[in-house]
Model the fold of this input.
Amino acid sequence: MNESTEETTRLTVSKLEDEIVAETRLSKVDGEAGRLVIAGKSLDELAEDSTYAETALRLARAARGILADPEASDVDDFRRRLGRARSDAFEHLEDQGTFSVLRRQTDPMDALKVAISTLPGGQEHEATATMAMGMAAVASAAWCRPDAELDALRPDSQAGHAADYLRLVRGEEPEPAEVDALETYLMSVSDHGMNASTFTARVIASTESDLGSALVGAIGALKGPLHGGAPGPVLDMLDAIGSADNARDWIAERLQQGERIMGMGHRVYQVRDPRPTAFEAALSLLGEQPRTQGRLTLARAVEREAEEQLADAYPDRSLQANVEFYTAVLLEAVGLPRELFTPTFAVGRCAGWSAHYLEQRLNGRLIRPRATYVG
Ligand code: COA
Done:
């Protein structure tokens, strides 16, 4: 921001960090223990035996106050509905002539906003929410393949969400281990307490606006580098550092210049964010791909160095790796281009945003804080 102002004194703006703004059944972020619970299951449990579709279903049920585990048949049914939603979203975007508009956007998050803003209204919430999840995957993939023959890349409604998304982006069938790694990623980022984009969605929901509007607002909030926009820059950083020997000087220089180290630090976690641990485990499933293992080794060295230097610079704070750090390594390893890292975050988070929208509509009232006038 380059705008100059006559009055240079900074105004006090609440960070809302100690304010509880809602009760929720959707997720719990325990910043002191480094633990995340999504719709009743800890991240460890989810990563072990769940899928993105199951987690999205759990969130949708929890928003309605249903906390019991879903039956396997309910999960299968939801998986099929999500597959159909991708196909319906494709037809809808094609009918509206939206694909060419998407491809003209230079930023894929803007493309995602365009696509989601076309969500048909007038359906019941669950149908719109499922369609939004399908549309996020279809639209992100379409943005990424501007020259591809779209006819060859129609969604496969029988496939799992991660598998189909990877195929739509890459134009070839992914390996099962890549699919599992992406399932883990999408599930791990499906919800995360009252983060900035979720709060945005809830504020919009509280005005009784529609789900599409809430999702467009949330996508806009996620786009920022202090929220979901960091993983691309994390990879840029790893490229610039190149080898573990350079990490110390590179980081010291950036900190001296007052820059932030992307992928480090979190408003809530006082210890390491649990999601990077889940991603590292998923990465290990990808076997001994030399490029991935090289990246992982470099990432760990950079993380160690950044953590050490940030601890020296900010002894009162605990600035450790956050979700974005290993997101970069994981999404690169499964063959997604870095421009799609933040949209892929949105593909996963659509489940949480939609559930928060519903929870707010069912339980909340207009969110309307106040400011102190000092003009
Ligand atoms: N690198 C360098 N310094 C950092 C830092 C980082 N990653 N994270 C925080 N700091 C510093 C700030 O510059 C600030 O220093 P100052 O007091 O000298 O101005 C101090 O720590 C407190 O920062 P603050 O902005 O109050 O912390 P926050 O709670 O708002 O920060 C983040 C949370 C995530 C926004 C912040 O850690 C950050 O910008 N991280 C990098 C971007 C990122 O990874 N985003 C993805 C988040 S999931």
About this structure: The domain at 231-333 is CATH 1.10.230.10 (Cytochrome p450-Terp; domain 2). Residues 72-95 form the longest helix (24 residues).
